[in-house]
Amino acid sequence: MAQPQPTILHVEDERPIRRFVRPALEGIGCRVLEAGSRAEGRTLAASYTPDAVVLDLGLPDGDGKDLIREIREWSAMPIIVVTARDEEREKVAALDLGADDYLTKPFSVPELLARVRVALRHAARVREGAGAAEPVFAVGELSIDLARRRVKLAGADVELTPLEFKLLAELAKQPGRVMTHRTLLLAVWGPGRSNEPHLVRVHMANLRKKVEADPARPRYLLTEMGVGYRLADE
């Protein structure tokens, strides 16, 4: 049986860029939707639920980071940022909001296509995982439902950002195992952020504030000094 044609939403206000990206994406078997503004991108994302989004940040009616935030309120679809903004703070902001990848202009089409293929593989794995009977990991009063992306503490829902959930989920997949800073960075942020351990420390601190009764004396999210973290496995 033929595989369904993946749909890519390209949100970019510069027509020349859209004109040369479209045939490249179609060349690897994708259906392409185009939007020239944040508002149009939001409408198409909600209407067609694409398999991935390629997103510029400099849009005529607002910042593309706001569109990332809006999409992440209801979907985990992969988002690849392609923008002229190369400042670290912009990259950190976009990734913290839930972008899966970040590519700066000028970019090579083969590299963009490679990143799109990676995003599509990731989306396929997420769909397969959602359809499987994944167990809910529980320790003490903390429970983590990987398939439904829900976290509860003492029966109450815990509101996490997309990145906080991804970090907690990586630990929950291998409870009791020490995971190094680099392992977590690669799993949650990707290879481009593998040398920035402060990202793990900051988000771990935020996680502890939400799931620990006393963040200074954690019961669930345990530190292995100089190495990384592990999720308690009672």
Structure in a nutshell:
The protein is an alpha/beta fold and 234 residues long.
Q: From the alpha-carbon coordinates, what is the Rg to the nearest angstrom? A: 19 Å
Largest sheet, if any?
Answer: 5 strands, parallel
Mean pLDDT, nearest integer? Answer: 86
**Which regions are unreliable across 5 or more consecutive residues at pLDDT < 50?**
none
The proportion of strand residues reads 15-25%
Could you give the distance between the termini?
Answer: 45 Å
Query: Order of strands side by side in the largest beta sheet?
Result: 2-1-3-6-7
SSE string, helix = H, strand = E?
EHEHEEEHEHEHEEEEHEHHEE
The computed structural class is alpha/beta
Q: Can you tell me the overall shape?
A: elongated
Q: How many distinct helices?
A: 8
The counted number of beta strands is: 14
Q: Helical amount among residues, as a percent range?
A: 40-55%
What does this structure look like?
The chain has about 230 residues and is α/β, with parallel strands linked by helices. Helix content is about 45%, strand content about 20%. It is built from eight helices and 14 strands. The strands form four sheets. A five-stranded parallel beta sheet has the order 2-1-3-6-7, sandwiched between helices. A four-stranded antiparallel beta sheet has the order 8-9-10-11, covered by helices on one side. A hairpin with a 3-residue loop joins strand 13 and strand 14. Helix 2 runs parallel beside helix 3 and helix 6 packs across helix 8. The chain is elongated and about 55 Å long. The relative contact order is 0.09. The model has no long low-confidence stretch (mean pLDDT about 85).
